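#struct-help
A.M.: can someone run this one for me? Single chain, 360 residues.
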Amino acid sequence: MKKIVWLFLLSPVIGHAEVNIAISPQQMRTLGITLAPIAKASPVTSNRLPGEIVVPIGQERIVSAPQSGLIDALYVAAGQTVKRGQKIAHITSADLVALQRDYLRAKSQHQLSRSMLDRDRELYKDGIIAERRLLATESGHQEVAAEVQQRQQALKMAGMADATIGQLEQRGEMSNGITLTAPMDGTVLEQMVAVGQRADTSTPIYRIARLKPLWLEIHAPLDILQFAKVGMAVAIPKYQAFGKITTILRSVNRDDQTIHLRAEISTGSEKLSPGQFVEAELAAEITTGQFSIPQSALVRTGHNSYVFMQSGQGFNASPVTVISEQSSQAIVSGKFSGNEKIAVSGTASLKAAWNGLESQ
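D.P.: on it. Structure tokens below:
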């Protein structure tokens, strides 16, 4: 019955562009209408979201044994920083001796085939041998040269540097060990073997990574898609670390119906460690002409959104564009100066009155 009474009390004042809902202070109190000032928008943050710190692709290397053997020295441990080319381990390998022997043998055969080719070329010029024999000698020389290349590559794959291979060619002195060096500047995250341990080919020895920047892998609920955007700021408040979203994976996890967001943490990454679980917030950027209002102030009609702005004689329904919504706050744009007051409760009654005036 109350609803019918107050509808008769409201009198329409029709303007050129807006419908004014006339209402007295007493009626506002009766209907529970309260006001709040519209304010310049402050950054809207999401709820805390769980995430894991990981090393970005391309910033991590696994140093493995290039040849089977005995690990007789380790020069760095987990947690230490290393420079590219720095010695980190040494492996004694009997197999390496066999590879060096095969390489020297192939080099010797190559020199012999080169001498035979030079001789046959001279004999062919003098007409002493047939062209067929020269072609056979050239073919044999090419096969030996290919074998030398193969043996050389085997030494490189076993961990021997070019300079060491050069010394082997010049002096013929074979080494029974391989010195492993750091492939990049970074931090040793893990030491996977111990001195005296037998290592097979490809046995992992160290995990080395560059720890700036780091990635944050976030698992977020599906409704975050309405809020999250590539380039949006991300904060890890507990560690004062900051970054931006770089990737939004649209594939949904079937088990918990979450989506995957990836952010690059460029500030404060030194306070974080790979494998660490943290809580992060997303923050929307605010531009000129955007205002922050309580979610309860929004009134929706079809696909349009409005707020009831206080005027001299009551309220006007002012159209707004919703930029983002999160928790109890919304960011909107509209024709506001920033000094207006809007209804934040009792909006259902105002909407009913407004619909009644519009239908007249």
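A.M.: thanks! The first strand starts at residue 12 and ends at 14.
D.P.: also worth noting: Helices lie at 2-9, 25-31, 94-125, 131-157, 162-171, 347-358.
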